[in-house]
Specification:
alpha+beta; two-stranded parallel sheet; 5 helices; Terminase-like family protein; 4 strands; P-loop_NTPase
Length: 167
Amino acid sequence: MEKPATIVGFKIGHALIDELDVMAKVKAQQAWRKIIARMRYKQAGLLNGIDVATTPEGFKFTYEQFVKEANKSEAKRKLYGMIQASTYDNEANLPDDYISSLYESYPPQLISAYLKGQFVNLTSGAVYPDFDRVLNHTDEEIKKGEPLLIGMDFNVLKMAAVVYVIR
């Protein structure tokens, strides 16, 4: 998929995209849009669809499309499905020392991504490596008159703040 712009001029009923998250986010999005536009093969009994098999490479296209975008509405949840698997699920087919050697070689963030199949921040030098989007983020809205608690980290380079309420 070096040139996603060339995915034109044909129709298909099913596609498999391998390692989508290895691509740059913009390029992956372009490829995705081109491929879904090709899903126009009409045949009785055929349910057009796309499968994606990829290692989560941080919070890139796969996270944006299959977690954030897919959960925006019930209609989108029906269109998307995601199975997250761990290397342990395939352990019987791997050399005996494969997993242990990766534990010896990888930092914690790569273990979470490549061995456990989790979406984690893989950006080098992450400021907050323990930040967890599930635990530390909400789309809740502030209620009128609710007291806000603000924590500040003035740091040497980039400042950061957290705003929260106690309910």
